[in-house]
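$ fold --in a.seq
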Amino acid sequence: MRRQYTLLEEPQGAEYTGLLRTLSRFCQYALLVVRPEIPLSPYGQETLQELEQDIVIQEARQEWPGTRLYGGNATVYLVRLSSRSLEILCQRADRLYEWSQPLLPEDLCLMRTETEPLLVSISHERDAYLLLSDDEKRELLSAVPSFRIGED
């Protein structure tokens, strides 16, 4: 059984990379979003170019984990989590909510499968949550002891 946990503080620095590296063990994909009404910076465009060989789906959607648009679409990128793409995600940002336009694509999520999220972030709202089993929670808190979550 999995429970939902809210992030009490934004993971930054070593805590951010520790979070991604630990959770990537349980995930096949990362998800990123680009909204058409906010121009993506050159840095954000370069980031997508670096991830290009691992992008398995790029499509217009009104909904993704944690967000539903009421009118219009955004481009959702599903990125295969490889050691290469994980390093890009760790290096291009220093904190979780930095995945926000215009600097970078938005709402970094880590996905167990194409449709099942583990880490969901809503960057512009500075909100994120995890869907974890007890074993996954223990492993995460053991790997990143300073990480703070609250059970919903």
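$ fold --in b.seq
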Amino acid sequence: MAGVILDEIEARVLGSLMEKELTTPDYYPLSLNALMNACNQKSNRDPATGYDERTVQEAVERLRHKGLATVLTGSEHRVPKYGHRVYETLNLGRREVAVLTPMLLRGPNTLNELRTRTERMYEFDDADAVLGAIHKLEAHEGGALAAELPRMPGMRETRYTHLLCGEPAMGTLGAAVTAGEVEGHTVTGGRVDRLAHVEAELEALRAEMAGLRGEWAEFKRQFE
């Protein structure tokens, strides 16, 4: 992306803000503790992280200086709240933000994975609609925000990645799990699709439970 390059921590923080704005709008913007938990949650994240509050707060400050994050303070907020400015700064619509989010949080995705992993963020009619959003990211006026990756040996499906951290290092892409492999066992297209859908639904439920636990803990702290 022309003019702005993120590091991996900034990408995780930004992706977490984008995800929560789309999936749990009633609890967005996020407190620092909630944002830290969102970054470190066990589901829908690759790789797993263990950021502390200082690391997350410093990343937010860097994002703020790049025009991609905002901090809300004042009498209406008991603690500072954090949000993103992707719509305004990058001039993106909701569907493009939905597609960009799993790329930021989980790395390269196949078209089927993107459609499954965006179900709670935006209701795409079909895979072609997802591909249309990807093409819009590729043709972004400020510089491409996403790209189609060359298919690596052993990969059955094309994968797409974001470019917010610059061009991907191609040498690292061979480590990605291929669509034809699940826990070391080769499976075929129909089973892959069903397994991916069930996995995504389970991860969504886990993420929702983790979010509710964090919100309940924060609510209790108000009375301590």
